UniProtKB/TrEMBL annotation:
Top-rank taxon, per record: Bacteria
InterPro entries in the record: 26S_Proteasome_ATPase (IPR050221), AAA+_ATPase (IPR003593), ATPase_AAA_core (IPR003959), P-loop_NTPase (IPR027417)
Lineage: Bacteria, Bacillati, Actinomycetota, Actinomycetes, Kitasatosporales
Protein name, entry field: AAA+ ATPase domain-containing protein
Disulfide bond keyword on record: no
Domain AAA+ ATPase: from-to ranges: 431-563
SMART domains on file: AAA
Organism in which the protein naturally occurs: Streptomyces echinatus
Amino acid sequence: MGHTAHASEAVAPWQMLADTLLQREALICRLGEGVPPHDFAGLYVASEDLDRVLRTLPGLDGPDRSAVRGVRDHLEPGLAAAREMFAASLDGAGKDASTGGDPFTMLVRRSRLTLSQAELLAVVCAVDLSPARMKLVCYIQDDVHLPRLTLSTVTRMFGSAHAAAHGSRLLTAALVAVGTEGPWATRMLAPADRVLWALTGDDTPDPGLPPGTRRTEGTAPGTAVPELLLVSGTDTASRLRAVTEHRSGQGLLTSAVPGGAAAWEALVREATIGELAVVLELTGPPDRETCDRIDRADHLTWVLGSGAELPLEVLPRRAFTELTVGPAAADAADWAAAFGTGPEAGIRLTRDQLGLVAAAAGGQVAGLSAGIRRLAGGHLDRLAVRVSPQRDWDDLVLPADQTRGLREIVTRHQRRSLVYQQWGFSPLPSAGVVALFSGPSGTGKTLAAEIIAGELQLDLYKVSLSSVVSKYIGETEKNLERIFGAAAAGDLVLFFDEADALFGKRSEVSDSHDRYANIQVAYLLQRLESYDGIVVLATNLQRNIDDAFLRRVSVGVEFEAPDECGRRRIWQRAFPAPAPVSELDLDFLARQFRVTGGIIRNAALGAAFRAARDSGTITMEHVVLALHREFQKIGRLCTEAEFGPYMDLLDTEQD
C-alpha cells in the first residue's frame, strides 16, 4: 500500500501517522484474516461473512491469530517511528507558540488534546481529505456504505473508543461529530468542515456561528492559562478593552448567547481554531445550559459581559476573575481610530456610542452632529417629543435673578471638563446637571429649557409621561432606562414636564401599589445620579417633589407670573415684526390682564387668525376677543373690572 500523497510532496507527520495506521488495518484484514471484501461488500451477508463472525464468538476456534500477530509484528517498527515523529511534531509546536507551525499541530495544542485524541483526529481528518483513504476505510470495514471510521473500528485500531467518548475533548471542542443513527458500532466519526478548512489553509469563519458574532484579532498569541472572566459595566466597548488588556492582547470572539446546539458547537470550534477568548454578551443571568457549555469547554477562556454584576448562584461552578469597568468616555485614541482626529469639544461619547456614530457618519467629522442626533433619536422618538430650539434669550421675559439661574445651567455644562477634570473636583454623584423649574403653567418653563438647549446647540427632548408611565410592573423602569440609555452621551436636554408625576414623594407602604410606586422613585433617583447630561424637571408644585430629588438638583429656578412690566414686554414680543398690527393699547393689556406669558402668546396668535379671517389688521378688538376665548378655556370669569370699555364687545361677539 503506497501513501496517498505523491512521492515528491511533503507529508505532514499527522498524515504519515494516519496512513501507517490505515495500512496496518488494511493488511491485517487482507493477510491476517484472509477474507478480502467481495464485489458487493455491505450490500448483503455472504456465507463466508457469517463464518468469519462466528469464529470471533467466545468458545469457538476464532481466527488465525498467529497470522494477525505476524502482520502486526512486521508493521510495528514503521508504526512506532510514525508515532514518534507525530509526538515530536506536537511537542515542538507547544514550545514556541509565536512561531506558528503546522496547522494540525497548532490545532492540537489549542484544543489541549491528549496524544491518543490527537492520533484519532489525525486519522479522521486524513480520511475525509482523501478519496483514496476512504476506499481504504471501506475495505477495512467491509462496507462501501462506511467510508469513515466507525466506533467499532476505532476501538480495534486504538484499543478503545475513549478518545471519541461523550466527554472527549474532540467532542467538547466540536472538532469531530459522531453519527446518531444506526447501531453504536457502525456510527461514523466525521470532522467538522471548519476543521478541514483550517488544515488546508482556509480561515473562513464557521457558517454556524450565531448571527452578529464578531471576531477581534489579537496582538499576541493567547498563551495564558484559560480562565472564566466576569466583566461588568454599561459600555460594551470598554468591557472588551478591559478583556483584551487583561488577556495580554488575545483575540476575542464576541457573541450573544447561542440559541441552539449547532450554534454553541460552532462558537466553541471557531474559538478553538483561532485561539480566541469567547465573550458572551449577556442580557440577563446565564441559564443552566450556558454554564454547562462553559464547564465542558474548559480549554477556552470564557468571558461573561454584563451591564451589572451577576449573582453568584447563576455562575458556572468554577473559579473566576472579576473586572468592573466604570463609565468611561471615549479617549483621544478612540477618536483618532474612529475619525482620524482628536475629541470634539463639548461632545462626550462612550466607546460604544462613538463606534455607532462613526459608522453612521462614514468616519467623516462632517457627519458627526447628525450621527449623534440619530443615535439618540432612534430610541427616544417613541417615548419623547423632539424639540429643535428656535428661540433665544430675547424671547424669554424673566427677572434678572431667574435669568442668572438659567445661564448657570449653561455654564455648568460648558465648563464641566475644566472643573471636574483639570481642577480635580469630584463629580459626585455625576457630572450631570439637574435643574428644577417650578411655577404655574405658562410662565416659561418649557421655553427656558428650549433656550438652554439652543445655547448649547443641543436637541431638546420633552418626555411624554403617557408613553413612559405604565400600569404594568417594571415597564415604567424599562421605558426610563431606554430614555436615559439613549441620552447617555449628554448631547441633548431631557425635559420632564409635570415631573411630580414621576418624581413625587415616596409614601408610607400600605399596599403593593405603594411599594411599586416607591420602587419607581428609587430607581429614578439612582438613574438620575448616574446620568452625565442635562435633565430639567418642571413642576407646578415644588412641594410635591421627593426630597431625595431636591437634594440632587444642581440649579433651581422659581418661575412666577410676570408683573405688569414683564407682561408688557411679553405683549410687545408676541407680535412679529411683519404682522399687520394696528394701534394696540399694550399698557392697558399689561395693566388689566394679570395672565402668564403662555396665555399672552395664545391670545396674540388667536387675534392674528381672527384678523386673517377678516382680511384686515390685528386690532384691540381682535386681541380682547382672543383673550375672552383663553379665559373660557381655563374657566376664568370675564369681569368688567378687567375688560373695562371692551366688556360690551364680548356680548356682541359674532362667530
